[in-house]
Design brief:
single chain, Rossmann fold, alpha/beta, 4 domains, globular, Helicase, Ruva Protein, domain 3, seven-stranded parallel beta sheet
């Protein structure tokens, strides 16, 4: 309708996937490279996930357009709750295989015969399953069985699974371990950032001969991003409507006001954007619905009641004369930064230094919930914590209750402006509960991380802390969508980047060489001269393992790895004791594995930076390896740092010897998976958090004065 008016040759923002409009964003470029690598391998499964409208289908069609049809026969099916038997029939139909039989055995035989004949002619079969998140486990198992078809040493069938994020959750579940071993490449398509959103819009306009009519004001692109969150399909919907509105009104310039008016009209016509209609996710703050203060308080009371069944261990609350002094009358209370672990100390160090240097923010006070490691504080140039709660003994529930008991007088004495913490630990949840009960705003500096293993303690803590926080800072953009799906208002979420990346970048310039660390420990440094270099091993989740066979699996995998290159295992004394109690320590001593005690952070970063690869079960180490560009193998069947797999240097191998051995072999032969630092892992996260806190605290103060809700629920 508007093409001739603006002098363009076609509709630039059609919803139908069209490879000719393919936009080579950073995420799509990376994903396409993974897919090409997978096709080159010619076997196994490739998994592509992304939000609705992220461009998955366009990506796959772009790839198919580049394949040699004389060598590869591709077929595509769309999964709509297909059962295993229905899936087989769909595959037969998609490849155009004649078959009148409906029995499962005959279908499998027919497919195998077709694939064998195809391979004998020097051609390969590629199956693409779209909307694969709808497959049940039996259907996925059927696909895995089809991947067993071989002719000599050649695989007869390669498959792509394309789906929404739920597919990733399904494949990361424990029953899918066998299937995961067949996945040779995976990628996740996230939304575009602000700059890419503008480039995407202009790219599509240029494809239809745009001569800058209509013109887009710079603020128009920002407004489009604000309403669409950078999701390509949402951008297409909104931009198509904007072009139509401009034509009908005779406008030739589109600015932020035009975008906002059209976006609101569109939203009014189709209803709430949080529903199934693909419309703006990032809504203007003033129209986000809020719960009443009474409802918010009831939710907090319910969360707190869940912990009241546990009796705290006998202890004395922190004496008030040891607490930092409250703010003077008429001034803002301090920012209380809660440090619950060694990793928290590392992450918060750059932020605390940055906040303390700012004049436009309240003062900073540090609260340590466990045993205070003064040496680490000194190494990271942190002042000693103002308060150390010293809660170390007892069960998870007892420690949580004890932290609550000791943290409450700290809140009462200091009257803070906000409590800043890193969600995931029992202590962080405890402090969030106390602060919420006292009507003190909570800032979660690492919100939205999910492993989707609901039984994991850290997963439970993260979900509850995210619900209680008034401001949720995310390390990756996709976390925003996770939080919104869980019912958290978009205005409470801010994508800021990764604090750990700040710390790694700062410490890396002062890292200690591994040779110097070994000499300090009185250990032989001969392993540094091995032709394959050395690997670093860390385990931090051993306390959650009670099954000796699982420990034996991990050790067996590491034994095999040590035949390829020597390993430096940074082992906590607790872990060593557990190995001794289980009679497994000899497995380590018989291999090329050097046991080392815990080292300082500058020493650890030096070891990782110089390593050929890293083997770990720790999310922070996965992130550190990604920042440093060192191949990392995760010794768990899941991770809550999915970005390190999608874009970074991490590969999930679980406890499989074969997968770990293959990953190490590829690293030694080809250099391994280096990845790249994800978006905003640039060393500037502390500054972005500080800038946002200034505005957010101002909003909190205004809300308090007006008697409104401080935290939008």
């Amino acid at each position: 309708m508007y093409e001739s008016h603006f002098g363009i040759t076609g509709l630039p923002f059609q919803l139908n996937p069209d490879p000719s409009f393919y936009f080579d964003s950073r995420g799509h470029r990376s994903a396409l490279a993974y897919l090409k690598f997978g096709v080159h391998q010619g076997e196994g499964f490739i998994v592509v996930t992304g939000e609705i409208g992220a461009g998955k289908t366009t990506l796959v069609r772009t790839l198919l357009g580049e394949l040699d049809a004389e060598k590869i026969v591709a077929a595509q099916i769309v999964s709509t709750q297909l059962e295993a038997g229905d899936l087989l029939r769909a595959i037969v139909t998609a490849f155009g295989i004649p078959s009148k039989s409906l029995t499962k055995a005959d279908l499998i035989s027919t497919i195998e015969g077709f694939l064998t004949a195809l391979t004998a002619k020097g051609r390969r079969a590629l199956l693409i399953v779209d909307e694969a998140q709808n497959l049940n486990r039996e259907a996925i198992e059927e696909l895995r069985m089809l991947s067993n078809f071989m002719l000599g040493n050649r695989s007869l069938l390669q498959s792509f699974l394309v789906g929404q994020p739920e597919l990733r959750s399904l494949l990361l579940s424990k029953p899918m371990e066998q299937f995961r071993q067949r996945v040779i490449a995976s990628c996740h398509l996230g939304p575009l950032d602000t700059t890419e959103t503008r480039a995407y819009i202009e790219h599509r306009l240029h494809k239809v001969g745009w001569k800058y009519d209509p013109g887009f004001a710079p603020n128009a692109f920002d407004e489009i991003y604000r309403w669409t969150g950078g999701v390509p399909r949402r951008v297409n919907i909104l931009c198509n409507r904007i072009m139509l509105a401009a034509f009908l009104n005779g406008d030739h310039v589109i600015d932020a006001q035009v975008v906002e008016r059209v976006a609101r009209e569109l939203r009014t016509e189709v209803g709430d954007p949080s529903g199934p209609v693909e419309l703006p996710l990032a809504l203007p703050p003033r129209i986000v619905p809020q719960q009443s203060p009474a409802a918010t308080q009831a939710a907090r009371d319910e969360a707190l009641a869940a912990l009241r069944f546990a009796e705290p261990t006998a202890s004395q609350p922190m004496p008030l004369d040891q607490l930092p002094a409250p703010a003077e009358a008429g001034t803002a209370g301090p920012l209380l930064c809660v440090i619950a672990s060694r990793s928290d100390t590392v992450k918060l160090a750059p932020l605390v230094r940055h906040l303390a240097a700012r004049k436009d923010l309240p003062g900073v006070r540090l609260v340590h919930t466990g045993h205070l490691d003064e040496a680490l504080f000194a190494e990271l140039d942190l002042p000693v914590a103002d308060v150390s709660l010293e809660v170390t003994a007892g069960s998870n529930t007892q420690r949580t209750a004890e932290v609550m008991l000791r943290f409450e007088p700290v809140i009462d004495a200091t009257q803070p402006s906000a409590v800043l913490l890193v969600g995931g630990s029992d202590a962080a949840l405890a402090c969030s509960l106390v602060a919420s009960k006292k009507d003190v705003p909570v800032v979660n500096l690492e919100a939205g991380l999910r492993s989707f293993e609901r039984g994991e303690p850290a997963e439970i803590n993260r979900r509850m802390t995210d619900q209680l926080a008034g401001l949720l800072c995310t390390t990756v953009r996709s976390a925003q969508y996770t939080l919104v799906r869980e019912g958290i208002a978009d205005k409470r979420v801010q994508f800021v980047g990764n604090l750990l990346a700040d710390a790694v970048k700062q410490v890396a310039t002062q890292a200690i060489k591994p040779q110097d660390t070994l000499r300090r420990l009185g250990s032989d440094a001969a392993c540094m001269a091995d032709r394959n270099g050395y690997g670093v091993v860390t385990l931090q989740h051993d306390s959650n393992i009670s099954d000796r066979s699982i420990f034996a699996q991990v050790l067996g995998a590491l034994q095999v790895a040590s035949t390829e290159l020597p390993l430096l295992w940074l082992m906590h004394e607790r872990t060593r004791s557990r190995f001794e109690d289980m009679g497994l320590l000899s497995m380590i001593l018989d291999a090329r594995i050097k046991l080392l005690p815990a080292v300082g952070y500058r020493e650890m970063i030096g070891m990782i930076a110089g390593a050929t690869c890293v083997m770990t079960d720790c999310g922070e180490v996965q992130e550190e390896a990604t920042v440093l560009g060192v191949p990392c193998m995760t010794l768990l069947p899941y991770t809550d740092r999915l970005i390190t797999v999608d874009e970074g240097s991490n590969t999930v191998v679980g406890r499989s010897r074969s997968l770990l051995n293959r990953a190490i072999g590829e690293t030694l032969k080809y250099g391994g998976k280096k990845g790249r630092p994800p978006e905003l892992w640039d060393g500037e996260t502390s500054r972005r958090i500080g800038d946002h806190l200034v505005e957010w605290l101002r909003e909190q103060a205004t809300a308090r004065r007006s008697g409104g809700a401080v935290q939008a629920a």
